[in-house]
Amino acid sequence: MFQVGELIVYGGEGVCRVEAVGPIAVSGAKNDKPYYTLAPLYRMGKIYAPVDTSVLMRPVLSRKEAEDLIRKIPEIEAPCFTERNPRVLGAFYQEIIRSHDCSDMIVLIKTAYRKSQARRARGAKPGQVDERYMKRAEELLYGELAVALDMSKEEIGGYIAEAVGK
Fold it and tell me: How many angstroms separate the CA atoms of 28 and 30, rounded?
């Protein structure tokens, strides 16, 4: 069980702070079970999630885990996924987003980036599906890395580029 004040990754929302744990006074909510009251770090609002929810919740990476992950970025292989059907491509990317695994997010970013670069080299625009999911993966990954490394989300891209020498 997570504690008040703890930073966690909650489903597709990204990093949230646990503000309370216990019953909530919201119409329609069952007061016989505890809920987490979560405050997303990168948008306004509150999330009320049952403690026993099936939505993924996990602790944010530690500083060491974040630094180790960034150091390994050059070694992370991105598959050559050449699917042209937007539905199949979207399903592939959505599965990665749902994994909430930072290494998988890097795979998605690298795959979509590689495809976009190849399209640009041929004089074509990057694919919308690739661009949309790459942006989403960057938002989730950079948000978590920013918290782990005590930086702003906007600083992470430059930090990664410098750390991997690109």
Answer: 7
